[in-house]
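Hi all, long-time lurker, first post. I run a small reading group and we've been trying to get comfortable going from sequence to structure in the token notation. Rather than ask abstract questions, I figured I'd post a concrete chain and ask someone more experienced to write out its structure so we can walk through it together at our next meeting. Sequence below, copied exactly:
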Amino acid sequence: MITDRLLHEIISIALAAGDIIMDIYGGPVEVKTKDDSSPVTLADEAAEKHILAALKALTPDIPVVAEESVAAGAIPDISDGYFWLVDPLDGTKEFIGRNGEFTANIALIMNGVSVLGVVHAPAKDRTFYGAKDEGAFCFEDGEAHAIAARPAPTDGVVVVTSRSHGAGEELDAFLSDLKIASTNHAGSSLKFCLVAAGEADVYPRFGRTMEWDTAAGQAVLMAAGGRVDTTAGEPLLYGKEGLENPHFIACGAANP
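-- Answer (accepted) --
Happy to help. Here is the structure in token form:
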């Protein structure tokens, strides 16, 4: 059951992970390469260690699927459909590039649906969070305010795409069918959150993502009235074999 207490405990865990990340962000960063050729830093590992310990203390009976643990071969049994999904540092390339567009992501999955999500952007001092039937919010400048995805503007949509993963033929074909007012780029799960906050309208993703990359941002966007569908028109769900996502489109409810 999702309660205010649970949501705020998860926010606190994400904020603490953000503090760990920022302590490391202030110094030289050693970069290692994982088996899938993606980068990993001490910040990824330290933030995940904190989140795993905190979630175990908070909800000892709920398994946790976390990016770096999975990379090390630690995959818990999630067959009952109730588990946490964690990306301790989403946007490692943005962290390495020092552009501030990285986040700590924590999501709760129930029967394939991401029902609670916290996306904390420590360098931006913005924390997005939302839960099913509870609405979505952004904490910034010392206060929380409700956010909502907006209907598609009649003069054209604002598209947000990945900063670190380039365009391809599928993305170009999708964009060619839209009336576009502007196209922006952002790293990490901030793209979901920009749509959730009405600062963008569409986030199409025609590249590889894993479930921990998207679950928290999707929960925030859905709580804000948006949606995330696969290119086949089905809702993006979780607990898939291999934990890899199909291509998807995130948008406000009335958007393409």
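A couple of things your group might point at:
The longest helix spans residues 4-25.
The helical segments are 4-25, 42-58, 67-71, 92-97, 169-176, 190-196, 211-223.
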